[in-house]
Amino acid sequence: MVQLLCSNKVYEKLKKELSKYQIEIKPDSSLVLVEKGYDIPDGKLSVVFDGIDYMNVIKLLTTGIREDLHFINTIVGFRDNKFEVIEPIDVFYLEAGPNGITAFTEFNRYSIKETLQYYENVWGIKGFIRINKSQLVNLLHVKEIIPWFNSRYVLRMENHTELEVSKMFSKKLRSTLKI
Amino acid sequence: MEKIHLENIIKSIILGLFIGIILQFSDNTNIKFSYRVLAILASGCVGFFIGLVTEWLTAILPISMANARTYFFINNLIALIVTTVIMMSLIIITNSEMVKKGEFISVLLIVLGIICLANLSDYMMYRRAQNKLRKFKAMIKDTKY
Questions:
Q1: What is the pTM of this model?
Q2: Which of A29, A78, A136, A179 is spaced 20 to 30 A from A143 at the CA atom?
């Protein structure tokens, strides 16, 4: 459980995200998340953050500093009226659409729960990276990075699917791969 | 216009300035230093126009046709065509004294040589990206799975 000292806007966002991880908000908690500009309470362990970085706070709380300790090895996907267990290593990419999140494996596609942001946080350490507003790709299954004009890239996957890395996210790809 | 990337245009300006400097070193005629500086700045402006035109043209290209060969082919083709056209236009507009064909060709060769080198380094970056990807995949596989 944590105490929150922040603006209403950030409070609502944090509340929503924390509930996903079953983290309770309690005013008397010894751990306090303090938005920059608010007074740091005495005698309590405080994490001070910038309002814009609220997702990083969630990441810190859920994965900790040693990220490798946290792993979610399987997810349940829905396909052809049945549920199947999928491992992250088998997922080529995730796509957000009007009907929710779809996980694409080499040959199949599954409907899965949660949001792209969630998987980006949890599976980021497994090589998943956001490449545009609606897709999260597993770099393990990228066969080739094709440069394209206007600072864009195309990722050719092992199953010959081609995914576009938008200009906005190409910086992240470059920094992840250190290119 | 939103697809146009300012960073690439700046790179083009820098390349233009670099070409200008190299051309000044290769030019043995005795002219004022200020003229040389002006020539370098003009070269930077040419770089800017080339960058702008290239970015504008390539923004139109659909990403569905993306593959490495097409990228490098188009990249080189645009660079060569735009550079040649701009150099020719500059000579015609300024009614340059550089009438001797030999002089023009040597300048053109230097310019094209530098552009080819720039494109070669672009290709090296492509190869580097593939290597980095391989290393990243190996690292992730070893440690996270």
A1: 0.66
A2: A78
